């Protein structure tokens, strides 16, 4: 198969949801379709959970929540599908945001009873920023749900994206009878089953006289009415609008019962984008360029508890990545070759000889890589788009054991390179401040420092509201601002100036006073 065909058959995407909406279950079912796992079981079965999800870290096993992001690749109908799994827990949202930078598209799972929830809204903000194409899967139709039209309105309003239903449910909850596939003009009747697939029934459009035989007179009439409303309300779906991130196609189903999943997947491989071009600071890089380029979006430590190694996850942007070939690590200006690059299938790793745009390879790392690093065949390009977001919580980190200060410094450095949290160093007193998205990350850091670096830390409180990256249109104003607010100025890990505002009010005042400075909640502006 030629290089261009390899690119054309690749789909690399992430599944995101608010916790409990059904992301893990949907992932599991997709893996089942792809033959990547062979037994479907309820997600609550630990056995499946361990094989189907990114359950690598000890801490994750202890807490039963997904801390890590993993990659699952499989073949389906001559397409190479790469699912980038994301932690559902909101305390690890930053990890999810970064993974989204490596996704060419996204499937958002929404609980049909709950509608759009907080975490979904935040994740959608990131997709919107990046114009990532989004498909919505409305899950748990086998349970009592909100009205489907209300759900669509909710998505449009809350996620600020136009929607276009490509399937429509026939009833819901105990009376759920199935979905009409608007996209294919056929019918899928619902029978709860976890192991096997639902076969769509071919009917001759919505006016087929056989329809009432399948779903009953009343529901057939209601379905017709609803489809008329849909035709009136929503214009025909133009795939271009989906690809530009302006319209989200919507599917209804029940992941647990394997219902509506195949329709989703079949449509997905048809319409979802092939590996997209990526902006670098120097130029736009197209997937079908000859020369290899890629970037690190995730660093994962200790997947094998017997080894201390880290694995850097590299998304291939262009060209063909080859084993044992020298590549330029642009930040370090060093050539490196990789003898054991791996492809992932949950916990299974296989060594790959070559990988194509859209693929993710895992590279053995002894501490050379940071999130956002670029690899090339020699060209000095730097990929954009791995922003840091302002943390929500801040604490001073202090050394508990003077004999272990080196270990602590190394541990903090490496954990920050992995993107576990963000480090700010106060310009005022030189103290280290760790910023996180959730309280749990402080525990993860403490635990990992102790178990991986034999370093003991303690936390001391600091009251901060937000970290703001400063954009200056006037050097003198910046100087005077830094002088006035010297207690609140820190450097981030790239040495950029950050204003640590201790309250929303303080930030407002600063904005009012310094008109030529802009304060951003993300490091990319
Ligand atoms: P998440 O990754 O988004 O957090 O969600 P996950 O797939 O773990 O699903 C959360 C719960 O919802 C699971 O129940 C799962 O079985 C259930 N679920 C997922 N899809 C469906 C569906 O289509 N219909 C129904 N009825 N339930 C679904 P659990 O963790 O086992 O908890 P419990 O309900 O057994 O207590």
Task: Describe what is shown at a glance.
This protein has 525 residues and is α+β, with helices and mostly antiparallel strands. It folds into 3 domains: 3-271, Rossmann fold; 278-376, 3-Layer(aba) Sandwich (Rossmann fold); 393-520, 2-Layer Sandwich (Alpha-Beta Plaits), CATH 3.30.70.3280.
Give the distinct bound molecules.
guanosine-5',3'-tetraphosphate
Average pLDDT level: 86
Query: Spatial order of the strands in the main sheet?
Result: 26-23-25-24-28-29-27-30
Shape descriptor? globular
CATH class of the largest domain: Alpha Beta
Relevant CATH superfamily of the largest domain:
P-loop containing nucleotide triphosphate hydrolases
Strand content: 25-35%
| CATH structural fold name of the largest domain | Rossmann fold
Integer tally of domains: 3
- Count of separate DSSP helical elements: 15
Distance between the termini: 40 Å
Going by CATH, the architecture of the largest domain would be 3-Layer(aba) Sandwich
Cα-atom Rg, whole angstroms? Answer: 24 Å
**Strand element count:** 30
Unreliable runs, pLDDT <50, ≥5 residues?
41-56, 60-69
Structural class: alpha+beta
Residues in helices, as a percent range: 25-40%
Largest sheet entry: 8 strands, antiparallel
Description:
- The chain is an alpha+beta fold and 525 residues long.
- The protein folds into three domains: 3-271, P-loop containing nucleotide triphosphate hydrolases (Rossmann fold, 3-Layer(aba) Sandwich), CATH 3.40.50.300; 278-376, Rossmann fold; 393-520, Peptide chain release factor 3, domain III (Alpha-Beta Plaits), CATH 3.30.70.3280.
- Helix content is 28%, strand content 28%.
- It has 15 helices and 30 strands.
- Helix 5 (93-100) packs parallel to helix 6 (118-130).
- The protein is globular.
- It starts with a helix and ends in a 5-residue tail after the last strand.
- The model is unreliable at 41-56 and 60-69 (pLDDT under 50).
- Guanosine-5',3'-tetraphosphate binds next to helix 2.
């Amino acid at each position: 198969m030629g290089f261009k065909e390899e690119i054309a058959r690749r789909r690399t995407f992430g599944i995101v949801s608010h916790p409990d909406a059904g992301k893990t279950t949907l992932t599991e079912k997709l893996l089942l379709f792809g033959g990547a796992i062979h037994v479907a079981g309820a997600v609550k079965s630990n056995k499946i959970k361990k094989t189907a999800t990114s359950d690598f870290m000890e801490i994750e096993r202890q807490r039963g929540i997904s801390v890590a992001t993993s990659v699952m690749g499989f073949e389906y109908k001559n397409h190479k599908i790469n699912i980038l799994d994301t932690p559902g827990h909101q305390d690890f949202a930053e990890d999810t945001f970064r993974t989204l930078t490596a996704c060419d598209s996204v499937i958002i799972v929404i609980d049909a009873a709950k509608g759009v929830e907080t975490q979904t809204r935040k994740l959608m903000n990131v997709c919107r920023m990046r114009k990532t194409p989004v498909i919505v899967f409305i899950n748990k139709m086998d349970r009592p749900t909100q009205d489907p039209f209300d759900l669509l309105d909710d998505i449009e309003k809350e996620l600020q994206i136009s929607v276009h239903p490509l399937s429509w449910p026939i009833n819901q909850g105990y009376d759920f009878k199935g979905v009409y596939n608007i996209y294919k003009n056929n019918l899928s009747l619902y029978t709860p089953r976890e192991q096997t697939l639902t076969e769509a029934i071919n009917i001759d459009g919505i006016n087929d006289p056989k329809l009432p035989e399948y779903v009953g007179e009343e529901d057939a009439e209601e379905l017709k009415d609803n489809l008329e409303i849909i035709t009136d309300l929503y214009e025909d779906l133009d795939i271009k609008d989906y690809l530009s991130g302006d319209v989200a196609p919507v599917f209804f189903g029940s992941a647990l019962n394997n219902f509506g999943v195949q329709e989703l997947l079949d449509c997905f491989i048809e319409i979802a984008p092939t590996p997209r071009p990526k902006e670098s600071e120097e130029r736009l890089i197209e997937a079908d360029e000859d020369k290899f380029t890629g970037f690190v979006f995730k660093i994962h430590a200790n997947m094998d508890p017997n080894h201390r190694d880290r694995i850097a996850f590299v998304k291939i942007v262009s060209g063909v990545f080859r084993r044992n070939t020298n590549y330029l690590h642009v930040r370090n200006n060093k050539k490196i070759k990789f003898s054991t690059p791996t492809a992932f299938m949950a916990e299974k790793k296989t060594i790959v000889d070559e990988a194509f745009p859209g693929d993710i390879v895992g590279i053995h790392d002894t501490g050379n890589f940071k999130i956002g690093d670029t690899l090339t065949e020699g060209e000095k390009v730097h990929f954009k788009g791995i922003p840091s977001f302002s943390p929500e919580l801040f604490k001073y980190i202090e050394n508990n054991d003077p004999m272990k200060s080196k270990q602590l410094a190394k541990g903090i450095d490496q954990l920050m390179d992995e993107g576990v949290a963000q480090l700010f160093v106060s310009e005022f007193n030189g103290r280290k401040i760790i910023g996180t998205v959730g309280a749990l990350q402080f525990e993860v850091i403490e635990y990992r420092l102790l178990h991986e670096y034999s370093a003991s830390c303690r936390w001391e409180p600091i009251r901060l509201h937000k970290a703001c990256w400063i954009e200056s249109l006037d050097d003198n104003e910046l100087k005077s601002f830094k002088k006035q607010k010297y207690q609140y100025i820190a450097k981030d890990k790239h040495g950029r100036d950050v204003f640590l505002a201790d309250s929303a009010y303080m930030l407002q005042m600063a904005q009012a006073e310094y008109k030529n400075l802009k304060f951003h909640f993300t490091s990319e502006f």
